[in-house]
């Protein structure tokens, strides 16, 4: 495994001061796991759309808990996700730069990203705008690994990342500010109100940063980032019914590297930083009612808009996703539950790219049915979905899964599932590589796993999986997109965790071989080996955590991306119930690692360290 770690370490004055704080704190504690393996009573909802104990789910799920999210308001979604060894986050620089997520080696548009059930993947790129999503007001993040198209339709070949927002539980108001290197700061203000099961919430936030260099040319300046937004929520949670209306708006400006002049062989002659304005807006109306003691009815109406406008040209990308869903949960017996539902979706895009305009929309309706059996030591899921797509016809997909408590300390699981993904508007129409004749991608996945409790607070787990994707969309001759016959993803995911009171540590490792099955060539931007090591200690008053991430090298466009290792550290102190101070050091070794190849021997870069300190006041 090849790593790049510059030496000697030359911290700035801020970083030096924060390092001293961390060293002092370490005399009282060691690092805590920022994405710790959740406790066995952790409740998750993404796998079944019902509140279930994590230990009963016949799949592998990672949880990013509230403590990790609240530790740094500046953190982006990519920062929160990168500590999972089964995820390869590729971000072309720091704040505001394009971020792609590869779960278990699958494509960057094979992971469905949701916020409280609302689909955030765009019609044009097929990816969620992770770099532009605000991380304010997150309760926890659930990462479901493996196909999930039975419940969620297209795009969930590799897995689902669900962002679950907070529901107010008491009357409170707060203000939080974090400041750091590169003239970076974020401020948040918010208030919650509750009474007799009714609640309301409001948040406002602002983030600015000079950010860092994103390209390995010395003549290019850093790519600054400016973002602001607000959100509001109101609802009610009663014994037999509940409803909520959520709204959020987030906008700003980011700079990125662009080629402004090419020769006849497509070699870039001039690079520059150019500006783009972004805006995303979400509206989500949800409701549920218990019609009978054994019957619940749930409904949702939602809309997500994702817009990007170039400042110096007339190019723009405007996406909109609208969904209506209704589903029921019926308790057949005390041990059996039947979930059935209908989802109607309309996705649309309006694009001008390099002066070429195209727009389109697509409608699809999904009908799904899932049966669950649950008793002490045995949990099963069996599901089927019919997706009627206006452009690509009907697809029938299914999933079967089982988890068995084989021994008092040993749990085993297995699952099999199929999934699909329709081509995006960019893949069909963009001016440089689009192909309107592309077929949908289809997959079949198998997985087996075991979780084992050991003595002295130790626990471990192991998962083996095999995924085959037919008609994978890749770049063909002359840079035109085409359907590859078959791609195969084979991998192993394992962890060893120790928990004893406030002390914790976790070692996780992921190996994946993602290849073109015909040519036996590795697919781009998939390091075969990923390792994460975290350890720490914390209680209600103070704590400290640190995480080491390491990745092997990976093939990329005209090059190989070198492997690298980074170390993050953070600490907090609850001085009293109303005042908290905290510090974060992202990439403490100031590793300017290469994230992706541009070609011609040039790379996008991660900009190095971001040291920060913050304070939260609440009443």
Helix amount: under 10%
Question: Major sheet: size, sense and barrel closure?
Answer: 22 strands, antiparallel, barrel
Structural class: mainly beta
Number of helices: 5
Cα-atom Rg, whole angstroms?
A: 24 Å
> What spatial form do the alpha-carbon principal axes imply?
globular
* Alpha-carbon distance between the two ends: 49 Å
The whole-number mean of residue pLDDT values reads: 90
- CATH fold-level label: Maltoporin, Chain A
Report the CATH C-level class.
Answer: Mainly Beta
CATH H level: which superfamily? TonB-dependent receptor, beta-barrel domain
Quickly count the domains: 1
CATH architecture term = Beta Barrel
How would you characterize the overall build of this protein?
- The chain has a single domain (13-267, 277-618), classed as Maltoporin, Chain A.
- 5% of the residues lie in helices and 61% in strands.
- It has five helices and 36 strands.
- The chain has a 22-stranded antiparallel beta barrel. The protein has a five-stranded mixed sheet with strand order 3-8-9-6-7. The protein has a two-stranded antiparallel sheet with strand order 1-2.
- The radius of gyration is 24 Å and the shape is globular.
